[in-house]
Amino acid sequence: MNERISTGIKKLDKLTGGGFLEGSFILLSGEPGSGKTMLSNSFIGEGLRNDENCIYVTFVESEEKIMEYGENLGIDYSGYEKKGRFKVLDRPVGEEMHVEDLTTEIIDEVNSMNCKRLVIDSLSAWILGFPEGQKKRRLVRTLSRLLDRINCTWIGIVEHTPKVDEASFEEYLADSVLYMETRFEGDFLERELKIMKMRGSDHSREAYRYMINENGIQIEEPKIKDSKG
């Protein structure tokens, strides 16, 4: 049975039944500005503090921006990078050939570093080079299986559009699915976190409001009493 590892957010550890399962694929879905990158950096930072080597693959933000996110959360990415324990792969969105080459590069880096935590920001951008749905599914499934074999836990970020009701193929492949949603209530921006799926876990089924401040993501109590089933 796989061990659990901390998400980097104490309240989220509690809601997930003790954290993410080691070697699992977590799909983190949300709208722009919902805090997906901040949650992912908290996840990486927790790994580094626990002597786990980590990689952040970015297609959206620059390496400098990722370093800045870490600094804002009190994570010395530069220090870990100098020790060979952390790496940012800042890559452009490419065509099909480039996507396949990048997949090989990610696996090679994970193996050479003995990486235990990986973030791909974003999964949506990474697979843009594949126009065919079948190839996209095969690519994500293959990567997930390879990472599972070496107990590398990874987060794949996707952009979520509230108007789309159908589940994406990534949701079916993922071991866990988290939604970070934003909406306006009057003149106030409200954020909610929902754990839609966690294989092998007794997780919370409620929507939890959360705030983003200088300390990162602060999850509040649910609007209604929590129930598990």
Describe the structure.
The protein is an alpha/beta fold. It has a domain at 23-177: Rossmann fold, CATH 3.40.50.300. The chain has helices at 10-15, 36-49, 63-72, 77-82, 96-113, 123-126, 133-149, 169-173, and strands at 4-5, 20-21, 25-30, 53-58, 86-90, 115-121, 153-159, 176-185, 188-198, 207-213, 216-222. A hairpin with a 2-residue loop joins strand 8 and strand 9. The mean pLDDT is 87.
CATH superfamily of the domain at 23-177: P-loop containing nucleotide triphosphate hydrolases
CATH topology of the domain at 23-177: Rossmann fold
Largest sheet: 9 strands, mixed
Helix content: 25-40%
Radius of gyration (CA) equals 17 Å
| Shape designation | globular
CATH uppermost class of the domain at 23-177? Alpha Beta
Low-confidence stretches: none
Distance between the termini: 21 Å
Order of helices and strands: EHEEHEHHEHEHHEHEEEE
| Share of β-strand residues | 25-35%
Main sheet: which strands, in order across? 5-4-6-7-3-8-9-10-11
Number of strands: 11
Structural class estimated from helices and strands: alpha/beta
**CATH architectural type of the domain at 23-177:** 3-Layer(aba) Sandwich
Q: How many H/I helical runs?
A: 8
User: Averaged pLDDT, please?
Assistant: 87
